[in-house]
Amino acid sequence: MQLTTFQTLQDYLNQQVIGQSSLIQQLLIALLADGHILVEGPPGLAKTRAVKSLAECIEGEFHRIQFTPDLLPADLTGTDIFRPETGEFTFQPGPIFHSLVLADEINRAPAKVQAAMLEAMAEKQITAGRKTYPLPPLFLVMATQNPIEQEGTYPLPEAQLDRFLLHLEVGYPDAEHELAILRLNRGEALGQRSITPPVLSQSDIFSARQTVLNIHMAEAIEQYIIRLIMATRHPSEYDPTLAQWIEMGVSPRATIALDRCARAHAWLSGRDFVSPEDVQAMIYPVLRHRLLLTYQAQAEGITPNQVIAHLLTLVGSA
């Protein structure tokens, strides 16, 4: 029942957000693995639409926050407001107190706002004044970055990048999908809506998370994950080229993320066990933003994707 519901949800979202099946899959994996997702791509690729469509299907409120250089932490978290009728201060929650939050162009906000976001993402709580307030039990952040416009931005530090479960790169759809988008948009403008969105309760999501955690993972797969992680920390033991490319390896948080995401990927694929293919499918979005490349690699135009591809050729799954 759970799996069928999630697969129906995935099919529905793919019909609402055409040509971005990878984004939809990773969004659901982040939901199942209880993590946050960073999406990098040009504007206009239905990133907001994807999260709004997901919010329609679950018991949770959606809020979009446009990050700007003049944004203050209180604009995000909320603030204490004085009530003259009672003579006391009461806390007014900010937009972060929603189940699904789209942090649009997160790298346009200054460091103090990013720090408030970091606490919310890592601890599922925020601090305002002297008090700490818990966030909703179901809490998912999808942050976006525009890779083209980098003027006037505040690049996310490694500590905050590490808080994201996944980093996804999205591109333009092909001609076939572009035509489907055109027709879908025209139909919506005419008031046509033929598909009723499936609805998931929060208890369905929490139950599915427990199922995903209980999926069988053989010790050989666990060792495969460990070898991949260790190769990023001790690249010279594997290959001199890899050692020239990697400045710093990934943290244990990456190990946990790869384990959880591989399980979620296997479950969404209809299997009750994790295979090496699940690990290989998820290693790119899990490690892409966590690998720190050397200046030499950056000067040569080497990308994290190329490093990960080389890593997979060096570390066998057997």
From TrEMBL:
Pfam families: AAA_3, AAA_lid_2. Transmembrane segments: none annotated. The keyword ATP-binding applies. GO terms for molecular function: ATP binding; ATP hydrolysis activity. SUPFAM superfamilies: P-loop containing nucleoside triphosphate hydrolases (SSF52540). The keyword Nucleotide-binding applies. Keywords: ATP-binding, Nucleotide-binding. InterPro entries: ATPase_AAA-3, CbbQ/NirQ/NorQ/GpvN, ChlI/MoxR_AAA_lid, P-loop_NTPase. Belongs to the MoxR family. This is MoxR family ATPase. It comes from Vibrio metschnikovii.
